Structure formats: C-alpha cells, structure tokens
C-alpha cells in the first residue's frame, strides 16, 4: 500500500463540485507536483490532505491511517503557503520553534531542532532577525524550516515560490528539492508553472477541472500527453491544421504537402480536417536531413535572440510554428520577412482528438 492514498475524493461548495473523483497514490519519499491552471482544484485537494477542508466524500490515508476525521494538527503535516505567513512579531528562531513550543517539547530539544533547521536552510546567522528584515526568498526558507521543525510525515507546499522573482524562484526550488531529498520527506508541491513542475518532480499530476487528467513522470507527461489539454498545458506546443490524405497509411497534407506521420489515423476519412500537435523540438530551420522529416516553405515572422538560443516564429502557409535554434557565431540568424525552409519531424507529431 502506498504511503499517502487519496481515493474517490470529491469536494463541492454548495451546488458546485470543484473536485471530482480524484485518485492518487504517493510513495514514501516521493516529490509529487499538482500542476494545472488557476481554479482547477489544486489547492482544494491540498487543503483536504492538510485537514483545512472536509471532503464531501472520499478517503485520504497517510501511513495506513485514515485521516479524514483528524484535525490538521493531528495529521503530522507541515505546510508552506504562497504568502510567507511568518509571525511578524517573532524572530526567525521563534518562528521555527513555534510548532515545537505548541507541542510542549523540552527547551533543549527545541534549541537543538531550531539550530538544525536553520543550518538546513543556511540561515544560522539570522536567527535573531524579524521577518521584515529578511528578503522574500529568506522568508520562504524560514517558512520551510518552520514547517519541517516538527518532523512531519508529509510536506505540503502551496505555490511557495510564486511571490518571488524569477532568479530566486529557480534557486529556491532547487534548494527545496535538495532538502526534500536529504530528509526523504513525502511532498506535494502545488504550482501552475509547468517548467517548475517538470524540473523538480518525481511525478506530476496534471489537473483540469477538478480531475487528475494525467499522472506520470515529467518525461512521460511531456512526451506522451494523454489529452489535448495536457499536450497544450505542459510545454510549448504548436498546433497545426492539416487534411487527411490516406488514413490507413497515416498520410496527411500540411499546407498542400504530403506528410507521413507514422501512425494510423482512426476516426477520420480522406479530406477530413485534423489538428496536429508538434513540439518545438520537432521543428528545425533548413532542408530536411532525415527521410522521416518533411521540408515545407516558410516565412519568418519574428526572431528573438536569447543568447545561446534563438526563438523563431514562422508561417507555414496558414499555420504558424514556434521553435528554437542554437546560436551559431559564424552565421547571423534569419530576419523577419525572410523566406526559409522549415523541416518537421513527422514521427514526433501527435494527432489531437483521436
Ligand atoms: P489557483 O492556482 O488559482 O490557486 P487552484 O487550482 O488551486 O487555483 P482552488 O483554489 O482549489 O484552485 O479552487 C478550485 C475552485 O473551487 C475554484 O473555482 C474556486 O473558486 C472554488 N473554491 C475554492 N474554495 C472555495 C470556497 N471556500 N467556497 C466556494 N468556492 C471555493
């Protein structure tokens, strides 16, 4: 049995159901992200795990114990919120000590744990400061230390990085992941940022309209999206309009040119309009060099020079694609308006709506 199991979880507010039959098993020590657009129910599921919200129906068990009827403080859970939520009138050390004081731990144990937690978040030297004297990133590290001080069996992180600026966000997410690995603590991380979820998770739960749309490792979610929603929400995705030429042989036409997509087309007949999803990695500038690629005529719409990478948008007849190419110091990038050849790797195209 998994360490944390959520089965047939449902939550309604009045007549509106915001979480529908949500099921998930999380193993001990796993780092699982809930990823989805605003309002899809991520926080509501997290709050039910924490005990701040009561499920309309369904079960949640942690370490084999049914926790639905337990109060938040009986669940042995640590939580970090988006807003720093530190006690402003307490020092860093007092904030970290808070849960241990409430639990009436002996002072020597409190002191030792505060010391251990502050060194875990590398803020040993700031124990006497007040929250207003810290940066946003430092405040979130203190919030993490406070959540971990009581040695919870599960750590819940609700968009802990979204109030921080981009650079701090990246370094802090790596720090959180390193601390989580070191402690081996089972963690759920809520985010609407796909790059964040892809970069730090063991598994991702992509949520849409209160349901788990797909659950899988980042590589799997990105490369084998189970639905159009997942394909478009996770990563950049080009959607191309095409026409079926030969369904059984898997041949379609994009901008009048035949393309073999390497998969049978079911549910469609010759002449039907279809949509294809193409990741930027399957698009390249120039003539095809592989026979599984197709070359199309394109026109450059925009070029963004990002340093090592150049981001290009180009029209292929009625369709538009975005893709990246590496900087080549001896060849300047193409210019907007230029006519170019664009190659599509047919085997990496995904037929939508099959
Ligand atoms: P965000 O990323 O914006 O925080 P989310 O995916 O975490 O979104 P939730 O906060 O779980 O979404 O909200 C899911 C839905 O439930 C939303 O439509 C929200 O308005 C609704 N909702 C949440 N809490 C309540 C409540 N206490 N009463 C009524 N509706 C609620």
From TrEMBL:
SUPFAM superfamilies: MOP-like (SSF50331), P-loop containing nucleoside triphosphate hydrolases (SSF52540). It comes from the Bacteria. PROSITE patterns: ABC_TRANSPORTER_1, ABC_TRANSPORTER_2. Keywords: ATP-binding, Cell membrane, Membrane, Nucleotide-binding, Translocase, Transport. Residues 4-234 form the ABC transporter domain. The keyword ATP-binding applies. InterPro entries: AAA+_ATPase, ABC_SmlMolc_Importer, ABC_transporter-like_ATP-bd, ABC_transporter-like_CS, Mo/tungstate-bd_C_term_dom, NA-bd_OB-fold, P-loop_NTPase, PotA-like. Belongs to the ABC transporter superfamily. Spermidine/putrescine importer (TC 3.A.1.11.1) family. Part of the ABC transporter complex PotABCD involved in spermidine/putrescine import. Responsible for energy coupling to the transport system. The complex is composed of two ATP-binding proteins (PotA), two transmembrane proteins (PotB and PotC) and a solute-binding protein (PotD). This is Spermidine/putrescine import ATP-binding protein PotA. It comes from Phyllobacterium ifriqiyense.
